Amino acid sequence: MITVVKCGGQVLDDNLLLEAFCRDFAALEGPKVLVHGGGALAGRFQKALGMEPVKYEGRRVTEEDTLQVVTMVYAGWCNKKVVSLLQADGCNAVGLSGCDGAVITASKRPPMALSDGRVVDFGWVGDVTPASVNAGFLNLLLEKGMTPVLSAINHDGAGHLLNTNADTMAASVAAALGASLVTCFEQPGVLRDREDPSSVIPVIDKNTYAALKADGIVADGMIPKLDQAFDALAQGARKVRICHSGALLAGGGTIIK
């Protein structure tokens, strides 16, 4: 079975965590695809350029200037850094954005209503679905012994680049490939108490998720992460796990059912 692994959060901005993660990913058996973000580093670059990152419910607003920054960070530095580390670990990785080989085509997100009723235009943000994924191209690379490394920069097929939530992208890729999905970040799983790393919630189903959101236990950037996990299962992914970047091989974390 194919495994789709999503790496994000602070991992891509921490050399030690990233190097350890890449070693584990390279050692993961079977065909695999890596999807990465880079939001922490992109936010740091924005601030260094005098820009203030804007997010609503964990989702980044992407105006033209922001699109240039995230493209340079995600499809440039982050993607090639990860590919170089994987090559050093013996994994024949190939780095791609959505426009490369038309591997993923996104549609520009229309203005959308937030949970509090406000309507927000997210700018140059793209939404993807399993139908957006060129599964044939990914399978061809996998059959040739290559490991695709996908940045969260996609295109609309009409010459426009679009910033995509990496969790959305990973969920769509996993569903399109009928794969297992593992989402890795800097926490050991979904926490009941964000200050207590031992408070991992081992299993979350839809009913549990609704209660966790209502109680404010799951909030901010964890909401899109879990939304996409459930979408992945509904659309064809085999299973979903959320865990620390160092637990890719060891297991554990939170299972989404």
Largest sheet data: 8 strands, mixed
Structural class: alpha/beta
**Number of beta strands:** 16
> Low-confidence segments, ≥5 residues, pLDDT <50?
none
Helix content: 25-40%
Give me a quick take on this structure:
The chain has 257 residues and is α/β, with parallel strands linked by helices.
Question: What attributes does this structure have?
Answer:
single chain, 257 residues, alpha/beta, eight-stranded mixed sheet, two-stranded antiparallel ribbon, 21% strand
Overview of this protein structure:
Helices cover 36% and strands 21% of the residues. The chain has 257 residues and is α/β, with parallel strands linked by helices. The strands form five sheets. Strands 5-10-2-1-13-15-16-14 form an eight-stranded mixed β-sheet, sandwiched between helices. Strand 1, helix 1 (15-27) and strand 2 form a beta-alpha-beta unit. Helix 2 (39-48) packs across helix 3 (64-88) and helix 5 packs parallel to helix 7 (222-235). It is globular. The mean pLDDT is 94.
